[in-house]
Amino acid sequence: MIQIDDIQSTRIGVVGAGSWGTALAKLLAEKGFDIDFWVFESEVKEQIETLQENRVFLPGYLLPDAIHPFNDIETVVKDKDLVLVVVPSHFMRSVAMQMKPFIAKDAVVVSASKGIENKTHLTMTGILEEILDFLPPENLAVLSGPSFAKEVAAKIPTVVAAASVNDRVARFVQAVFAGPTFRVYVNHDPVGTQIGGAMKNVLAIAAGICDGMNMGLNPRAALITRGLTEMNRLGTRLGADPLTLSGLAGVGDLLLTCTGALSRNYTVGMQIGQGKKLDDIISEMRMVAEGVKTTRSVYNLSRKLGVDLPICNEVYHVLFENYPLEETIQRLMNRSLKHELDGVL
Ligand SMILES: NC(=O)c1ccc[n+]([C@@H]2O[C@H](COP(=O)([O-])OP(=O)(O)OC[C@H]3O[C@@H](n4cnc5c(N)ncnc54)[C@H](O)[C@@H]3O)[C@@H](O)[C@H]2O)c1
Ligand SMILES: O=P(O)(O)OC[C@H](O)CO
């Protein structure tokens, strides 16, 4: 139940103990909340219990006693006012199915995951709305923006957006998460917030490729700017407000991820730019680079909807069809000449 005037009484479950789930559970526990924490791996549960650390996904940070790890999801989501889901996007559907029998009918469910489902092209709240069909859709929210887990865990000032179609829900989420090093703005555009968060990962792979090839700084700035145009084209086609895409979950996260070496997506791109094969890169990672799967969704969506997304689509060809990088750049540069706002206005 939403009780904005008594935020500290909010009962919270966090589902997903990767780096982001762990950083957010830590942030909430340090705000004084007791956190029931769903951990997929028994190894990670044991580490949190015995060492107060998630050595696999967020090593080096002491986790407060108020974080209680469980491998069973019922304990974590049952009787909670707010459930935060932070699993990789390709697990969102299966995890939502597991949570479904236990979630309270008036719970607020927040997604902090970034991606678009391959088969359905649904956003994360789209999946949650479909599976948790007993919840009022306005009880779904999104937390997104420029936020590397390690920096949040280190209490480096971070600013994000909480999105819900319902202002009261968005402000509830804002009040739960906001703190001296974590500033939260609200908006009412979960679609734009999620399209920004998903597409920036595809564009970060492209930026990493440019940097891996040592192309220089001009192409990266061009890519970020034209990438934003692509976000606007697809986002507005799906109902996003373009102003959301100029905000934290769009431009903010695009800038961070396309320039920050801490980004897994940028790093994947960088390695591709240096000549490594995608399968080899992925097989060496235990964490997710969401942009890889999102590239497929964005490519297929752009074809289905007839939206022109040249950069994202070239990322698809490079990742999944081994297109040579030099030719890809030539192809992007030699397309027909256009007005800057073609396809946006
Ligand atoms: N790490 C960040 O800095 C950051 C910041 C903002 C948003 N995100 C988003 O958060 C989401 C989660 O990413 P992360 O970085 O916390 O994860 P991660 O890459 O650190 O870890 C992978 C996660 O996948 C989980 N997993 C593996 N198999 C699973 C299964 N079968 N079912 C359910 N879960 C399984 C693991 O337990 C682990 O929690 C992603 O969508 C990501 O884009 C991450
Ligand atoms: O490491 P990445 O590329 O998944 O980026 C993490 C966050 O999404 C940055 O906001």
TrEMBL record:
It catalyses: sn-glycerol 3-phosphate + NADP(+) = dihydroxyacetone phosphate + NADPH + H(+); sn-glycerol 3-phosphate + NAD(+) = dihydroxyacetone phosphate + NADH + H(+). Residues 12-168 form the Glycerol-3-phosphate dehydrogenase NAD-dependent N-terminal domain. Its main location: cytoplasm. Residues 189-329 form the Glycerol-3-phosphate dehydrogenase NAD-dependent C-terminal domain. NADPH binds at residues 19-20, 114, 149, 264, 288, 290. InterPro entries: 6-PGluconate_DH-like_C_sf, 6PGD_dom2, G3P_DH_NAD-dep, G3P_DH_NAD-dep_C, G3P_DH_NAD-dep_N, NAD(P)-bd_dom_sf. GO terms for cellular component: cytosol. Pfam families: NAD_Gly3P_dh_C, NAD_Gly3P_dh_N. Substrate binds at residues 114, 264-265. This is Glycerol-3-phosphate dehydrogenase [NAD(P)+]. It comes from Desulfotignum phosphitoxidans DSM 13687.
